[in-house]
Amino acid sequence: MKLIILFCIIVSLCLFPAFLNADEKENDSEEKGKLEKFESEIEKPKEDSSTHSDDDDDDDDDGCNIFCQIFFKILYELFIGHPEYEQTCHDYLWEISLTDFPYQSPGCGIYGYHTNRKMQLQINSHYFSDLKNIDGFSIRSRWLFTPFFSLDGNFIRLNENLDPGTDKMDIYDFLFNYQRFRFQRVNWWWGMGMKSVKREKYHSVLCLDTGLEIFPVKPFSALFSVNIASINNHAVSEVFAKVRYHYKQGQIYFGYQQFRAESEVINGLIAGFGIYF
Q1: Cβ distance 175 to 41 under 8 Å?
Q2: 96, 86 in Cβ contact below 8 A?
Q3: Which residue, 49, 80, 155, 181, is most buried by CB atoms nearer than 10 A?
């Protein structure tokens, strides 16, 4: 119950900026900053470049259908699998449970055997900088309420120093992820949720999320994740990568974070810390 209450508090902090007034914006400069260009990129009308052709024949349709069936079969096996088969032939996938923290036992990441732990909460916070005019503060949380599924809440506030004044933009996500591969040294997940971007205007859309974390050697781990969405028919994505140093329930990490809206890119280095509950 304590973990549930703590997770709800973290998610509330992540989502609270959505209800703030846009009056916080202090940028009076006529020259556009990168944050303004980022929002402009997802605001501008999308050109309709679709074309239609009547030259397709039945053979092409049959070939496409066969390819699609094979493609979706592969996707199903990769992303979903067959629980009955996995339970029969790979009992270790179902016996594995969560650890108190990475490397609690030799060779174990966040998953291990005979721990009997069914829930875990991770809270991380980091500083972002593009080494120029933009910096920011982020808080990220992941609640594994079972070894199979997680709820993730991410928030970052970006600040851009302009002449004169400053500009601000908030980006936050609320995600539901399926932990598809649950091994002692490798964890891969995928899922979906809501992505929101707030500057002068507020945008909120569905998004897709996937990520991978590996635990090659104590006390390090490496994480890579991608989050994609479409706002006003414009592709918006986030790439997140970090290397973590673990010490019992604590961690420090360094990495890279990128935000992209079509051709407008904001990227920078990150440094932060976290804790496992």
Answers
A1: no
A2: no
A3: 155
3-state secondary structure the chain: CHHHHHHHHHHHHHHHHHHCCHHHCCCCCCCCCHHHHHHHHHHCCCCCCCCCCCCCCHHHHHHHHHHHHHHHHHHHHHHCCCHHHHHHHCHHHHHCEECCCCCCCCCCCCEECCCCECCEEEEEEEEEECCCCEEEEEEEEEEECCCCEEEEEEEEEEEEECCCCEEEEEEEEEEEEEEEEECCCEEEEEEEEEEEEECCCEEEEEEEEEEEEEEEECCEEEEEEEEEEEECCEEEEEEEEEEEEEECCEEEEEEEEEEEECCEEEEEEEEEEEEEC
Task: Map out the domains of the chain with their CATH numbers.
Answer: 2-18+60-276 (2.40.160)
Q: pLDDT per position in the chain (277 positions), as tens?
A: 555 555 555 545 554 444 444 344 444 444 678 999 999 988 887 665 444 444 444 444 554 555 555 555 555 556 666 554 455 445 555 678 999 999 998 889 999 887 889 999 999 999 999 999 999 999 999 999 999 999 999 999 999 999 888 999 999 999 999 999 999 999 999 999 999 999 999 999 999 999 999 999 999 999 999 999 999 889 999 999 999 999 999 999 999 999 999 889 999 999 999 999 9
Q: pTM of the prediction?
A: 0.76
Cα(173)–Cα(155) distance, integer angstroms: 7
Nearest to 207 by CA among 170, 178, 241, 176: 176
